[in-house]
Specification:
The chain is about 20% helix and about 30% strand. By secondary structure, it is of the alpha+beta class. It has a single domain, classed as tt1808, chain A (Alpha-Beta Complex).
């Protein structure tokens, strides 16, 4: 979640050396460095729920799933982002140390301060990753999920959960790039939204 811009511009090398010594995470984009804001409890709980269901599904399949402390690098020049959840099934990422280079699925949990950026400019950058097949945005204020999938013509198609008029209790969310689906309520299980528990 991007919070504020740092005053000075940096090269990629300067950013990587500087950020390694910082107590908080920073994203890097077009020579600018952005501090990451702390997340809310609902935001954190949703990300952990997604991680849990995907980790179980992917066990033994040669994929890795990571949460918000792991960078995704678009190119050697950047940008560098910290998505809330990232999945790579590319063998080249199995031995990665500093960043994921070949993500297949990226999930961002939205907050009021970052939602516009996650839907807009950040998605424009993510679309440049050849291996990315799905981009998912989870709302942290209501039970809602927008999933963008790349079709065979390399166009991005939107599917929203729940669909108009669909009962949340019976809604199934699908991550087709991983051959996975689960109840949307499972992702929001025990997440407090506006003071009301969304027990799944």
């Amino acid at each position: 979640m991007v919070a504020q811009i740092q005053a000075s511009r940096m090269t990629v090398a300067e950013y990587l050396a500087w950020e390694a010594e910082q107590p908080i995470k920073h994203e890097y984009m077009d020579g600018e460095v952005y501090a990451m804001a702390g997340s809310t409890l609902p935001h954190n709980d949703i990300a952990l729920n997604v991680y849990s269901v995907l980790r179980s599904h992917l066990r033994g399949k040669g994929c890795r799933v990571n949460v918000s402390d792991v960078k995704v690098r678009l190119s050697e020049q950047g940008p560098y982002f910290y998505p809330d959840v990232v999945v790579s099934c590319d063998q080249r990422d199995r031995t990665a140390i500093d960043a994921i280079l070949y993500p297949q699925l990226i999930i961002e949990v939205l907050s009021p301060s970052t939602g516009t950026f996650d839907y807009g400019r950040k998605f424009q950058y993510y679309r440049q990753i050849p291996t990315l097949e799905e981009y998912v945005l989870m709302d942290a204020t209501q039970i809602r999920c927008d999933r963008y999938t790349k079709n065979t013509a390399n166009k991005w198609e939107l599917t929203s959960y729940p669909d108009d008029g669909e009962d949340v209790e019976h809604c199934q969310v699908e991550f087709s790039s991983l051959g996975f689906s689960c109840a949307l309520g499972l992702i929001y299980e025990e997440v407090e939204l506006s003071g009301v528990s969304s027990a799944g």
